[in-house]
Every structure is written in C-alpha cells, then in structure tokens.
Amino acid sequence: MRASVREHEQPKYIGRKGYATQNIMAACDFNMCFTFIWAGWEVTAHDTIIFNEALRRPEVKFSIPTREKYYVIDAGYPNTRGYLAPYKGTDIRYHLPDFCHRRTAAIRAPRGY
Predict the structure, then answer these.
(1) SS3 8
(2) Would the N or C end of the chain have less CB density within 10 A of its end CB?
(3) Residue ranges of the DDE Tnp4 domain (predicted)?
(4) Which residues are CB-contacts of 55 (< 8 A; sequence separation ≥ 6)?
(5) What is the pLDDT of residue 59?
(6) Phi, psi at 35, each rounded to 5°
C-alpha cells in the first residue's frame, strides 16, 4: 500500500514498484471482517518481525488464541504455539488450479501428510 513519508525516511519504504509503500499486518475472522490492523511498517520489515512485535507488545492488542485454539496464518509468519502456517514442503498443492492440471481424480487426490 502506498505510503507518504518524509524524504529522509523514504529509502526504507521504497518497494519493488519504485515508490514508497508500507507493510500492513491484518487479521480477519471467518466472516471476513477485520479484527486487527497494524499499519505503518516500512516495506523492508519482514513479516516475522512485525508478527513477533505484535506478540511482544500488549498495547497493540493483537489477539492471542486460548491454549486449545490455533489461528491459521499466512506462510510469511512462523509456526508457533497458537499460530499455524501452511506446510512448506515440496510437491504440496494448496490451490484448486494445481489439482485441475492432472487428468484423473486418483492422481489429483492429495497425498502425504
């Protein structure tokens, strides 16, 4: 997302597109309603840094799941207690178009753990 920053701070906000952008961490519920948004991070900040800061700083009020619950998170975040990111193994197909490229239902069926 585009950002408006002071000229002396712009280098850390310049993204792939060549203009100032910001990294935004957002969470939503099963109704696709936002429950948390934290904007303003420079584009050079990795998702893991933002995630760990949200966990570390209670004043931002990032939701922490109860002991027996897990939140499904983006692959850019680390797997940790209460937060479950997709498995990043080889030959894993998560998207429906990946399954459609095969010819028979038996070949398209998920395999492995």
Answers:
(1) helix
(2) C
(3) 6-91
(4) 62, 64
(5) 93
(6) -115, -15
Question: 62, 36 in Cβ contact below 8 A?
Answer: yes
pLDDT in tens, 53-93: 998 999 999 888 888 888 888 887 888 888 888 877 666 66
- CA dihedral 34→63→66→85, nearest 10 degrees, is 70
**Alpha helix positions (H), the chain:** 47-56, 96-100, 105-108
For residue 72, report the phi and psi dihedrals to the nearest 5 degrees: -80, 130
Best CA proximity match to 77, nearest among 102, 44, 47: 47
Q: How many CB atoms lie within 10 A of CB 105?
A: 8
Q: Which two tokens stand for residue 1?
A: 């997302």
The reported pLDDT for the residue numbered 82 is: 87
Q: For residue 61, which amino acid is it?
A: K
